[in-house]
Description:
Elements: E1 2-10, H1 15-27, E2 32-37, E3 40-43, E4 54-63, H2 67-80, E5 95-101, E6 106-107, E7 112-113, H3 122-131, H4 137-147, H5 151-154, E8 156-160, H6 165-170
Helix pairs in contact: 3-4
Amino acid sequence: MNVVYLSIGTNMGEREQNLKLAVKLLTETDGITVEAVSSIYETAPVGFIDQASFLNIAVRLKTKLSSAEMLNVCQGVEQELGRVREYRWGPRIIDLDILLYNHENIETESLIVPHERMFERAFVLVPLDEISDQATEQLRSAHKALATMDIQKEGVVQWKKAVTVEEFVRSES
């Protein structure tokens, strides 16, 4: 089984519900077992800053799917929830990024793992650190990068405490 870490974010519509629907769709996908969901963190936008704040989570899952198949699942979830890619770093109903896929380094035309900017972004590293076991060098590097950041300055605030995967997908907003 492959161990995969995802980052999921949203800043449009019913943000918490968007996260829950994304995780629910992942749990309903054959060959995927969602093992953990981080707390929800509210964060200031990066890049294009004239937009609403984001809610972000990290998810740890196990899957039989290849990295390319996992990317297709993530893009399918985005499409099902109505993601429209208007411009880079713009507002989005949902965004699923593969952060880590096992301990592999992957570079294809459509996928780069570890995610190319994850070590620079507290809104990715804080939730990731919460659910990671740091069993790989990549996770240890993420933890070290996080230790050098000023989380408050980065604008990452815990919005809602972590619960089990089952509670996360069934709880009301």
